[in-house]
């Protein structure tokens, strides 16, 4: 199933004109503040009636202005996860979940409640009311309620934005499981580079109401010409497998035949991980460095370079482990005579990779 969205809408002073495809999995809408993400989500939800648009997945048509099709919001079969859980305060968790299921069409293929409860770890919370739940727990219940309404699409508009770092870290794995174990596609709005790197199957980048990039996450995040969240957010994503945990606290990973060492990762040997490597944490070296404290040295070939207006440059390196981006100074790029096609080594400190930048693939 492939959701196809094309929407045009003009407000005074801002126009949205976008078209993108959301394949199964998580499609993250990213882009700076005011780029049109919420307007687009509202159009999908049916809360905004755009001037023109077509939103459909096969024969399931939510909107087709040319044909006069405009499904009302409650007919769209969408599951929502908002910033704040928006649970019913007077109902218990069990009743909140049942409310979601009550809205599912009788003939719909529904997730099994017990499975959803297990997947989200909310069994012990079933008899509590929302006032007795933490922010993270509320959000897990909200995800469960959305899932049990048998949605054909889940809309998550910055669902972690209101949570502190610890709660974010608690919730993200549930979205990872949702992506990998539930067949409902998810449209997920996020500003956070880590969330995008960990969750996205597909990334759609908006800027001033237009789509400036869309495609598989590794391609979009590995494109040195894009920096949706600013220079500090540039970083590529690698997929690696846990090989073993060493006694000195390091975890050894394998990616494309190369070893990577990171501070202890809480995942069993054999697990598959997505790791965001921030471009500013990568050093480039022409020779294979010797006598260096950094443990991760990935040889590769320069694929592309982008010199910005300031002192920085982004170098895209294709390694056996995948695409790595390095943010270095233009002065260094010139001094090292870096150019596409050149063989260099990417050097990454183990401790530079934060736990929050490591996601699980289920
Ligand atoms: N009802 C409206 N009338 C006029 N302009 C609007 C309306 N709603 C949104 N806009 C404008 O449309 C632009 C896009 O807003 P939108 O909320 O979609 O951005 P966003 O990418 O979701 O931003 P943020 O990340 O800050 O939530 C903004 O310039 C906003 O001021």
Can you walk through the features of this model?
There is one protein chain. This protein has 362 residues and is α+β, with helices and mostly antiparallel strands. Helix content is 21%, strand content 37%. It has helices spanning 37-45, 93-102, 113-120, 135-148, 165-181, 193-199, 217-221, 330-335, and strands at residues 3-11, 14-22, 26-30, 52-57, 60-64, 69-70, 78-81, 153-157, 186-189, 202-207, 210-216, 235-245, 250-255, 258-263, 272-278, 282-285, 296-307, 312-319, 322-329, 343-348, 358-361. A 6-stranded mixed β-sheet has the order 7-8-9-3-10-11. Helix 3 (113-120) runs antiparallel to helix 4 (135-148). The chain binds adenosine-5'-triphosphate (ATP). Adenosine-5'-triphosphate binds next to helix 1.
Instruction: Return the average pLDDT rounded to an integer.
Output: 91
CATH class division of the largest domain: Alpha Beta
Helix content: 10-25%
Largest sheet: 6 strands, mixed
Protein name: ABC-type molybdenum uptake system ATPase component ModC
Domain ABC transporter: 1-233
InterPro entries: AAA+_ATPase, ABC_transporter-like_ATP-bd, ABC_transporter-like_CS, Mo/tungstate-bd_C_term_dom, ModC_ABC_ATP-bd, Molybdenum_import_ModC, Mop_domain, P-loop_NTPase
Keywords: ATP-binding, Cell inner membrane, Cell membrane, Membrane, Molybdenum, Nucleotide-binding, Translocase, Transport
